[in-house]
Design goal:
Length: about 240
Amino acid sequence: MNKTEALARQQALVNQARTENRGLTAEEQAEFERCQQIIDAEPAGTAGQGSQGAAEGQRGADPAGPDAIQQALAAERQRTADITSLCRQVGMDAAPSIDTMQAIMLKLLRQTDPFGESIMVQPRFVIVPVGYGFKMAQILESPQIDVEGIGSHTANALYQYRNRLQAVEEGTINTLAKGEALPWFMAGDPATGRSIQVDYLNGMKTPSIRRSQPAGRLGYVWDLWMDWGVSAVDWRGIAKNPGVQ
């Protein structure tokens, strides 16, 4: 499978999901990501058999000439645009923005129980890597924005959520990404949809402290300990956007 075929397969997966008014299944998501790996692995400016005619027209030309460079840049820009378009259709692989925020909020709000009834998980926390906090402040605190096709000074629909959504910057996300795409998450209000639960031994939520003075030693020895555990309760209470580099 070359880049052109991979892009076509991604588009087919997205179109099928949209036609059935659902998101990608686990199998479809895995196939989408495999296609993405093929697209990323293919050098810029190549598109398999689809670029054969262009290649024949350039035989004998300097491969490093200005025309070849411009064509490679144009092909790379088109590749990026195609990937971005596909990802926007499923609300994935993008930094926080008004569109991606709306997509991830709808993903939570449309969650259902085993009987198909809506459970209406209310969005509450936006967990982002360090560096996205400023962007989140702009998104939530701007009463008006410019919208293409509508005009400037358009009401920002997310402005009403400025007191309902809490942005949390977490440096661990940056560390675990190791230079790759930075994912971000939206978690629901625990009152409407639990996702992560923290438990404490015997309900003790503060550290235990013990002081002792060993024989033959000047000064005190302090022992501090705390027993706690973290568990995933319900996957429907949290949504993830794989993000971008």
